[in-house]
Amino acid sequence: MKFDFDGIQAFVVIAELGGFNKAADQLHITQTALTRRVQKLESYLGLKLIDRTTRHVELTAVGREFLPQARSIANEMTSAIGHLKDMSEHAKGSFSLACIPSLTVSMVPQLIRQYANLYPDNRIRILDATSSEVRKAVLNHQAEISIALHGEKHPDLIEEPLFDDPLVFICQDTHPLQDKKSVTWSDMRDADLIAVSSFTSTRVLMDYQFAQHGIQLNGSYEVQHHATAINLVAAQA
Three-state DSSP class for 205? Predict the structure, then answer.
């Protein structure tokens, strides 16, 4: 169905103002252009909407019946276009961000604060999940953008590296490895680790490296998020 907004708008303005002269002035077009818009709409519908004589303009019975619907269409379209222009000119709107939890408790809050200062009327929805889940959130249109660990590229996603985020070994100051400036995979051969869930990209990388070095992962605890693991380390006596 071909939608003729110009014709519907012209019809509504003519009906509300009661004449072609005033309607043309309000729409900032010539009377000839206004007449063509109405004629095009009537031709498409195959119906006469307006009876026009040299003295007055009157809606036909069909025109009077169509007017409420036409007015609703014109108002909704005008409102929708105005909303989009407002979003474009003033960056108003909302978006969803999918992000791994380790960044939602560190870097993201500061960025969100900066964004909120620039665009205080905007609404932000944050989905914190594993790296694979935040990718799926974008693919499933649950989020516009996501921040995840580097992984296998997907043909339907555009990915841009943001920064390097090295893995770190976190322990208490009484741990045998606490004085080392760097820790190798072999150093963790006998370490009692608090492991992160196998569904996370970090765990997938660790399992691969451990397998490469012939190391069996040892740990009394397994958690879903890195922040939980860090808190458990801090709580160990």
Answer: helix
Nearest to 202 by CA among 131, 128, 129: 131
If you compute the radius of gyration of the chain from its CA atoms, what whole number of angstroms results? Answer: 32
Angstrom distance (rounded) from CA 106 to CA 89: 31
Tokens 């009537």 belong to residue: 42
Structure token digits, residue 80: 């929708």
pTM for the model: 0.47
- What are the helix and strand counts (H, E) for the chain? 9, 7
Where do we find the tokens 């890195």?
A: 226
Question: Strand runs (DSSP E) across the chain, as ranges?
Answer: 50-52, 57-59, 94-99, 123-128, 145-147, 194-196, 221-223
Q: Exposed, middle or buried, 217 (CB in 10 Å: 0-12/13-18/19+)? A: middle
How confident is the model over 60-105, as pLDDT tens digits? 999 999 999 999 999 998 888 877 777 666 656 678 899 987 788 7
pLDDT tens-digit series, residues 102-159: 788 778 888 888 888 888 878 888 888 878 888 899 999 899 889 887 777 888 888 8
Q: How far apart are CA 4 and CA 66, in angstroms?
A: 14
Q: Compute the Cα dihedral for 139, 142, 146, 149 and give only its sign.
A: negative
Cα dihedral across residues 29, 34, 40, 45: positive or negative: positive
Residue 148: strand, helix, or coil: coil
Give 216 or 2, the one with higher predicted confidence: 216
CA separation for the pair 203, 54 (Å, rounded)? 82
